[in-house]
Amino acid sequence: MFRTGPDRSSLEQILCDLLRGRGIEFIEQFSTRSGFVLDFVIPPCYAIETDGPCHDSSKSKKRDRFRDKILKNEGWKIFRIKYNYFMNRIY
Q1: DSSP state string for 7-66
Q2: Could you report the per-residue pLDDT of 32-81, keeping only the tens digit for each?
Q3: Residue 6 lies inside a defined structural domain of this protein
Q4: Is residue 77 domain-resident?
Q5: Considering just the CA atoms, what is the radius of gyration of the chain in Å?
Q6: pLDDT attached to residue 52
Q7: Strand 37-42's sheet: what is its strand order?
Q8: How many domains does the chain have?
Q9: Which letter does DSSP use for residue 82 in this model?
Q10: Is residue 73 situated within a structural domain?
């Protein structure tokens, strides 16, 4: 399932608008070989993950580290943007 329009988080929408505004081509909700879905992909190998508050728990952080390790082994370069960090710098 692809999250677009009203189904996007506010951070995903902001990032989408920023990338488009800068003419950067990207793919949203990209499925990888390992079955993970990346929030944004800038071909050929850059992935941007938008991490809202649900990523702050220790269990979520552990899951994200595991996921990133698998994705890096597939050749992805992962960039995580924390909601609070990002929002505090643009507003």
Answers
A1: GS-HHHHHHHHHHHHTT---EEEEEPTTS-EEEEEETTTEEEEEE-GGG-SHHHHHHHHH
A2: 999 999 999 999 999 999 876 555 667 878 988 999 999 999 999 999 88
A3: no
A4: yes
A5: 13
A6: 66
A7: 27-31, 37-42, 46-51, 77-82
A8: 1
A9: E
A10: yes
pTM above 0.85, yes or no: no
Q: Which of 51, 49, 40 is nearest to 82 (CA)?
A: 51
Residue ranges making up the domain that contains 70: 53-91
- Residue keyed to tokens 């995580």: 80
Nearest Cα residue to 81 out of 30, 36, 46, 43: 46
The one-letter amino acid code at 45 reads C
Q: Which residue, among 51, 39, 21, has the nearest Cα to 76 in the 3D structure? A: 39
The H or E element spanning position 67 is helix 58-73
43 occurs within a structural domain: no
